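Running this now, will post back.
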Amino acid sequence: MGSERMLSMAEAINEALREEMHRDERVILLGEDIGVLGGIYRVTKGLLEEFGPERVIDTPISEEGFVGAAIGLAVMGFRPVVEIMYADFLANCMNQIVNFAAKMRYMSGGQLKVPLVIRTMMAHGRGHGGDHSQVPIPWFLNVPGLKLVAPSTPYDAKGLLKSAIRDDSPVIYFEPYILYRTRGPVPEGEYTIPLGKADVKHEGNDLTVVAISAMVPRALEAAEKLAEEGISVEVIDPRTIVPLDEEAILRSVMKTNRLLIVEYSHKRGGVGAEIAALVVEKAFDYLDAPIMRLASPDVPIPVSPELGKLTIPTAEDIAAAARKLVLGEV
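Update: finished.
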């Protein structure tokens, strides 16, 4: 890898798309306003001018239609990358994703490949209200055949997207709006990050915090605060939810003997529930305290910025939960 530069997550995603389009002419982009406008948050800026309208395709406002078209293109040998403007709109094309993209490879006995990436933006935290702020990662946990990716840094965002585009299975790639402008080091040279490989963002011995997507920076902030108090926190970023790096999570819990899970989506039926069940099944004897979960409460996300702040765990919330676990207050 070459020297590192500081890029925003949006810039890193744009660079991954550009590099993969240069690398493989089968990579094409489809979505609403991704071409002339360059995406509503400019994530696809400049790609239409560079690759032309046959590879950067502005679609009608019909998620079911263009996702269905992308599935057909994938089966025919292309590698389409679809943008669903808001993750909430995945509900509009659920049939295409769940009953076609996810199942075609299995139901054809492996004869058909579906190398499809669906990029989508989660706007939770921006004040867009209940129908534009959902974090629907858990919707797809119960669908075999899909891979789910949730980056938290520009470096991870680029490397994971490149791997997703090269994968022969359908991947849903969840981008958190509140991290789009967050900057971080990204190497100039070619690199990828394998799907299914977690990252230890901060090493520690007293408590494991598994943080999902936009919660990773907040968990790291909490870990720094707690270090000043003598509490050593290990922060694990799964990076991919499916496949999940179970070994990394279990290894950390077996070391620290305590687990706090922090996620961006609703608590009930969430990713945290699945991780908690995994640890209870495979590492229960190592736990010295109950597993704790922090997540968005089970209410529609309000438009009000002040109310909206109450629906996302803060670094202070994470630190308070960690103190309870480590100091034996639960």
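The chain has eleven helices and 14 strands. More later if anyone needs it.
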